[in-house]
Amino acid sequence: MKARIKITLKNGVLDPQGKAISHTLESLGFDGINDVRQGKYIEVSIAETDPEKADAEIKKMCEDLLANTVIENYSYELEEI
Amino acid sequence: MKARIKITLKNGVLDPQGKAISHTLESLGFDGINDVRQGKYIEVSIAETDPEKADAEIKKMCEDLLANTVIENYSYELEEI
C-alpha cells in the first residue's frame, strides 16, 4: 500500500521558511497573501496489504521518525497500489 | 482561500533524502518498505475569494517560484476558509 503523509508545523510554531516564501511571492508581485506555511510531504510504499496493519505501521513510522510530534502534526492517506 | 500544494520529484529523478529515510526506517526495524519519496508541502492562504482567479494565482505561484518544473511535479487543492 502507499501512504501519502503530510507533516506540518503546529500552530504557534514559528515558520521562517514559510515567511521567506511569503516575502518572495510578494516581491514577485503577488498580492493578498495572508499566510504561507511550509511542511513536508512523504510518500511511503510498503509491502503490507492489510489496511489495518498498514495503518498501524505508517502511524508508528510517523511517531518514531518522520514527524517531531513536539512541534509538528502529521496526517496521512492510505491507498492500495 | 487556502491552497494545499504538494510538490514531488518527477519519476526518474534521484531522491537521496527519500533513500535516507528508507534506510533509517529499515534500521529501526520496519520491514517491507518498497520505496520512499520526499517532497514539499506548502499551505498558502490568499485573500482572493473567486475560485477561478485563486486557481490561476496559485498555479502561477507554483510555476514561478514554488516548484522547479524541470524536475518537480506539483498538485494542489483549493478550499474556502
Question: Could you characterize the architecture of this molecule?
Answer:
2 copies of one chain form a homodimer. Chain A has 81 residues and is of the alpha+beta class. Chain A has one domain (2-79): 2-Layer Sandwich (Mth169, Chain: A). Chain A has 2 helices and 3 strands; from the N terminus they run E-H-E-H-E. A 3-stranded antiparallel β-sheet of chain A has the order 2-1-3. The model of chain A has no long low-confidence stretch (mean pLDDT 96). Chain A binds chain B through residues 6-8, 18, 21, 24-25, 28, 30-48, 57, 60-61, 64-66, and chain B through 4, 6-8, 18, 21, 24-25, 28, 30-48, 57, 60-61, 64-66.
Look at the structure and give the CATH class of chain A.
Alpha Beta
Largest interface: A-B, 33 and 34 residues
* CATH superfamily membership of chain A: Phosphoribosylformylglycinamidine synthase subunit PurS
Helix percent of chain A reads: 25-40%
Return residue spans of chain A where pLDDT drops below 50 for at least 5 consecutive residues.
Answer: none
Strand order within the widest sheet of chain A? 2-1-3
